[in-house]
Design a protein that fits this description.
Blueprint (H helix, E strand, L loop, with lengths): L1 H9 L1 H27 L4 H24 L3 H4 L2 H27 L3 H7 L2 H13 L6 H18 L14 H20 L6 H23 L7 H26 L4 H8 L2 H13 L5 H27 L1
Helix pairs in contact: 2-11, 2-12, 2-13, 3-10, 3-11, 5-9, 5-10, 6-13, 7-8, 7-9, 7-14, 8-14, 10-11, 12-14
């Protein structure tokens, strides 16, 4: 059994699935670390350290990977597009971590985050005139229904109709989707490692500016530093590297589908490490959102095979 698994991992698709699965686990783990860190420090101190470390790690990776071609590889319109996308993703990231801070269970944040691929599909259809089929349409309906079920609070007044913090995830999903559409619309190959580095530097600069203006003291104990260093390594660098490696061996739709399973891993990790578990309605909604994402991805593959 182990020998067959080892042989399958040596194949091109096997390597792709391995890296995509590793990216999903790394991203899911970063949810747990960020939630733990945000329970010990506020968002400003968290962002300053998290993205400062991310900027350093990404710079080291870029220098080691590209060496002499570092400056000549990223210039002109490619660099400009990368900056625009990084700004959008930067705003989305801040909103996303604000949601993690506000909401009790990071698994719920991850489930609502499945709105992103749905919005990308809708924007692709309406803005880029991309084709769709019935499977994708069913996936959109299921995913949207699932997200609504997660955020819905039965018996609440109108102003408390949705879970506190869910609006930040929705806002982040919209911005991430717009960034994806901008990337699709441009023909240049945007380097994900460069975009991750720009995003980390941009967010570090913003949080550093806030720290200076507000005269905050950088009070971090050893536990906080350990959590932030590991979490930043997982989110700002390792997830990007693994996802990029996966794209070398398997299609983007399959990579995206495997990474979208992060919500399941966040759910399991949150239960064991944070002692939190979603309610029944949140679990049902989360399941529908994942099924919807699967149908959207399968529908995209089916459409491509017809062309």
């Amino acid at each position: 059994m182990y020998k067959s698994i080892y042989i399958s991992l040596k194949t091109q698709p096997g390597k792709g699935y391995f890296f995509a699965f590793a990216a999903s686990l790394a991203l899911a783990s970063s949810f747990i670390f960020s939630k733990s860190a945000l329970s010990l420090v506020d968002l400003i101190l968290f962002g300053f350290a998290w993205f400062g470390i991310g900027a350093i790690l990404n710079t080291i990776w870029l220098v080691l990977k590209f060496k002499k071609n570092l400056l000549t590889s990223f210039k002109g319109k490619i660099l400009l597009n990368a900056i625009v996308i990084a700004v959008l993703e930067g705003l989305a990231t801040v909103s996303f971590y604000l949601a993690i801070q506000k909401m009790e269970n990071p698994a719920v944040v991850s489930f609502i985050g499945n709105l992103g691929p749905v919005l990308v599909t809708i924007m692709g259809i309406t803005l880029l005139a991309e084709k769709y089929n019935r499977i994708q349409l069913l996936g959109i309906v299921l995913a949207l229904g699932g997200v609504f079920a997660i955020t819905f609070r039965p018996g609440s007044e109108l102003q408390n109709f949705f879970q506190p913090g869910s609006q930040y995830v929705v806002f982040a999903s919209v911005l991430f989707s717009v960034a994806t559409i901008v990337a699709r619309k441009n023909k240049e190959r945007l380097n994900p490692e460069l975009m991750s580095t720009i995003r980390s530097f941009l967010l570090f600069f913003v949080f550093a500016l806030i720290v200076l203006v507000s005269h905050r003291e950088l009070n971090y104990n050893r536990e906080v530093w350990q959590i932030i260093i590991i979490g930043s390594f997982l989110e700002t660098l390792l997830t990007i590297v693994f996802a990029y490696q996966a794209l070398r061996y398997i299609e983007a739709a399959k990579t995206s589908l495997i990474i979208s399973t992060k919500a399941v891993w966040v759910l399991i990790m949150a239960y064991f490490f944070l002692n939190t578990f979603p309610g029944t309605l949140e679990l049902v909604g989360g399941s529908f959102s994942i099924i919807g994402i699967i149908l959207i991805s399968l529908g995209g593959n089916q459409r491509s095979s017809k062309i």
